[in-house]
Write a structure and sequence with these properties.
With 455 residues, the chain is of the alpha/beta class. The protein has 14 helices and 24 strands. The chain has 3 domains: 2-235, Ribonuclease Z/Hydroxyacylglutathione hydrolase-like (Metallo-beta-lactamase, Chain A, 4-Layer Sandwich); 246-340, Rhodanese-like domain (Oxidized Rhodanese, domain 1, 3-Layer(aba) Sandwich), CATH 3.40.250.10; 349-444, Rhodanese-like domain (Oxidized Rhodanese, domain 1, 3-Layer(aba) Sandwich), CATH 3.40.250. It has helices at 34-43, 63-70, 150-165, 196-202, 211-218, 228-237, 253-259, 289-296, 313-320, 334-340, 353-361, 374-379, 415-426, 438-444, and strands spanning 2-8, 13-20, 23-27, 46-51, 73-76, 87-88, 94-97, 100-106, 115-121, 124-131, 134-135, 138-139, 173-176, 194-195, 250-251, 264-267, 282-283, 303-306, 327-331, 349-351, 367-370, 387-388, 407-410, 432-435.
Length: 455
């Protein structure tokens, strides 16, 4: 048997290639599909099926592209929507793979027509690919179609999990479409592998065996990044209709400067952005691009990249998986080349926690902005007097942040703080200081804390 799990960094998206006797299926492929072709070719397998568990919201699905390049059949879920490619999967439909069999199991809840796929050998379930129905330690969110449908979808999700998935047996391996860090579930565990039995015992959502109690606790509205709307439309059309993955143009500092008007500049350097950056840049460190670009980058504006090195393809892959194809180029030679060309830069002041403590002890009237999420605040202490605005909501609440006082920006470690500072600097804030190490550093020294932990 051939089994490969392919993780898309940043998105915490899992896709799978499964096969037997040289016949394979790919489940929930991402847009850049070469990885599946490479695996199949390396092992001498032919991809026969491409199976989707649901219409995805957080990344572009590569089913149509993979089908065009492999000749495989595409079977999609959510037959209630108007897909422009593939065929709609039917409940209990079977997909033979050599000595193994994949069978479709309708498991609505995350979307109205979600499917899971059960891998069987001689009728015995070995694995179940659950999409966004069941994760390690969490279940799928049910709020993506609007608050008026969350109760009904949560009830469907209960039936799917308790009446269809759990009866597969405790030894069945659970293979979800996402891992820890995904926005498709609020508290996905970092268990890399799990089983029906482990989820039955350890998943907090599965402890609500009463349907009404389950619905009450699962039917919640979570934050929805604005780029989801773009993904929902594109994933019905099929990414074969979209441009191929771009190969950005290296731009000299002079050409980069000429291209700046009408463009958005994304700087993915982690530590050195604060010291010096191209004026007007947005700071999102490389590992955070998939998590935060969809909140702050527009789709109708060319993107210019500033990276630590000239190898910008790790950035490009994350962007195109979210549909950002209009990448106009990157600063060749990076910020050093920009300096050598004599162009102006901006900076963001950075302070350590001891430096901030000395400012506070001296009586400075500081304004502390904490950009951590409400969930983080519920699970940890906070800084006395700090004002909380979640990083994803910062542009909607700029009127609450003073320009006539020094603003110290906190997050968990300092990375999201730099995003917030760059966004505020774009909009005219001058007196900003990012606190290095964030709350982790604050908690490591002897400073006051306000407890918000649950009793």
């Amino acid at each position: 048997m051939l089994f490969e799990r392919i993780e898309s960094e940043g998105l915490a998206h899992y896709s799978y290639l499964i096969g037997s006797d040289k016949e394979a299926a790919v489940i929930d492929p991402r847009r850049d599909v070469q990885v599946y072709l490479d695996i199949a070719n390396r092992h001498g397998y032919r991809i026969r099926y491409i199976l989707e568990t649901h219409r995805n919201e957080d990344y572009l699905v590569g089913s149509a592209e993979l089908a065009a390049r492999s000749g495989a059949q595409v079977w999609h879920a959510d037959r209630q929507w108007d897909y422009q490619y593939g065929k709609a999967t039917r409940d209990n439909q079977e997909f033979p793979l050599g000595r193994l069999m994949l069978s479709a199991m309708e498991t609505p809840g995350h979307t109205p027509g979600s499917f899971s796929y059960v891998l069987r050998e001689k009728e015995s379930p070995l694995m179940v690919f659950t999409g966004d129905c069941l994760f390690a330690g969490e279940v799928g969110r049910v709020d993506l179609l609007g608050t008026d449908q969350t109760q009904a979808l949560a009830a469907d999700l209960f039936d799917s999990i308790f009446n269809r998935l759990l009866p597969l047996g405790d030894g069945t391996i659970v293979l979800p479409a996402h891992g820890a860090g995904s926005v498709c579930g609020s508290a996905i565990s970092d268990r890399l592998y799990t089983t029906i039995g482990l989820e039955r015992r350890l998943n907090p959502r599965l402890q609500y065996s009463d349907k009404a109690e389950f619905v009450k606790n699962v039917a919640r509205d979570l934050e929805k990044p604005p780029y989801f709307a773009q993904m929902e439309v594109a994933n019905l059309a099929g990414t074969a209709l979209l441009p191929r993955i771009p190969d950005p143009t290296p731009l000299s500092p002079h050409d980069f400067n000429i291209s700046m008007p009408g463009s958005v500049i994304l700087d993915t350097r982690q530590q050195s952005f604060g010291a010096a950056h191209v004026p007007g840049s947005i700071s999102i460190w490389l590992g955070g691009v998939s998590s935060f670009a969809g909140w702050f980058l527009p789709y109708d504006t060319p993107v210019l990249l500033v990276n630590e090195t000239d190898d910008v393809m790790p950035v490009v892959r994350q962007l195109v998986r979210m549909g950002y194809d209009n990448i106009a180029g990157y600063l060749s030679g990076g910020i050093l080349a920009w300096h050598k060309a004599g162009f102006d830069t901006e900076s963001v002041n950075m302070v350590s926690v001891p430096q901030l403590c000395r400012c506070l002890d001296s009586g400075e009237e500081a304004w502390i902005l904490d950009v951590r999420s409400e969930e983080e605040l519920r699970e940890s202490d906070s800084i006395p007097g700090a004002q909380n605005i979640h990083i994803t909501q910062i542009l909607q609440h700029t009127g609450e942040i003073p320009k006539d006082r020094r603003v110290f920006v906190f997050c968990g470690s300092g990375l999201r703080s730099m995003i917030a500072a760059s966004l505020l600097q774009q909009r005219g804030w001058k007196n900003l200081s990012v606190v290095l190490g964030g709350f982790s550093a604050w908690a490591s020294v002897t400073r006051p804390l306000t407890s918000k932990k649950k009793a």
